[in-house]
Design goal:
Arc Repressor Mutant, subunit A; alpha/beta; five-stranded parallel beta sheet; 218 residues
Length: 218
């Protein structure tokens, strides 16, 4: 009898979890051992289920996938992680790898790519699309820094705040979503304005809305 690798799913969309569970459980070498719709629930259940690999979304209600990845690596250092997200890999893949993930795949990819990514990471390799691997290789070889004033200059937390602003969240709502104080959100906004070379809160909000709109079109 083949030992199946245990996979844990973290996504706040039930249909995505159902699709992944059906896909994975049809494989002779893989099985879903648990699933969660939030970061706190995921961390609690992972300790009980002891999966070998987790598939995590970047965005989820009441938390951040990037922060969850860091939490998983702190609590379960040997657990392998793949990010499966709608967000553009050009902006998030490198951040996810720095946080501790071993692969990044976009939700629009073909089903076979998801299975390929899982098996690749289970074999101890990194998984990125060919396009993203080339971008990161060129960045490494050329030592090319991010352009001043670009989104890449933002820290993971600053990017979260910027993203939520673009979704129309108020400062107080962002504070509640990220479980931080309103003053901390305001401090993040001030740093974002400085890094993006914006002069006012109005400019910041407009830039965030335009950026979010551009992400939705990709």
């Amino acid at each position: 009898m083949i030992d199946k690798a245990k996979v844990f799913l973290v996504d706040d969309h039930p249909l995505v979890r159902e699709w992944l569970a059906t896909l994975i459980n049809q494989q002779a070498d893989l099985q879903v051992c648990g699933e969660a719709d939030s970061a706190p629930k995921a961390l609690q259940m992972m300790g009980e289920m002891k999966p070998e690999i987790a598939i995590v979304d970047i965005s989820m209600e009441g938390g951040s996938g990037l922060e969850l990845i860091k939490g998983i690596k702190a609590s379960h250092p040997s657990l392998l992680i793949i990010v499966l997200s709608m967000h553009d890999e050009a902006l998030y893949a490198e951040r996810a790898l720095r946080a501790g993930a071993r692969g990044y795949i976009m939700k629009r990819e073909a089903t076979k790519r998801v299975l390929q990514a899982i098996r690749c990471v289970l074999e101890g390799k990194l998984y990125l699309s060919d396009k993203m691997a080339m971008i990161m290789a060129e960045k490494f070889v050329e030592g090319r820094p991010s352009r001043p004033g670009s989104i890449e200059y933002l820290s993971d937390r600053e990017l979260e705040v910027f993203q939520l602003l673009g979704q129309g969240y108020s400062t107080r709502h962002i504070a509640e979503e990220l479980h931080i104080s309103v003053k901390t959100v305001q401090a993040f906004c001030a740093r974002i304005k400085e890094k993006l070379k914006l002069l006012s809160a109005t400019e910041l909000l407009r830039e965030a809305l335009l950026w979010h709109e551009s992400q939705q079109k990709k």
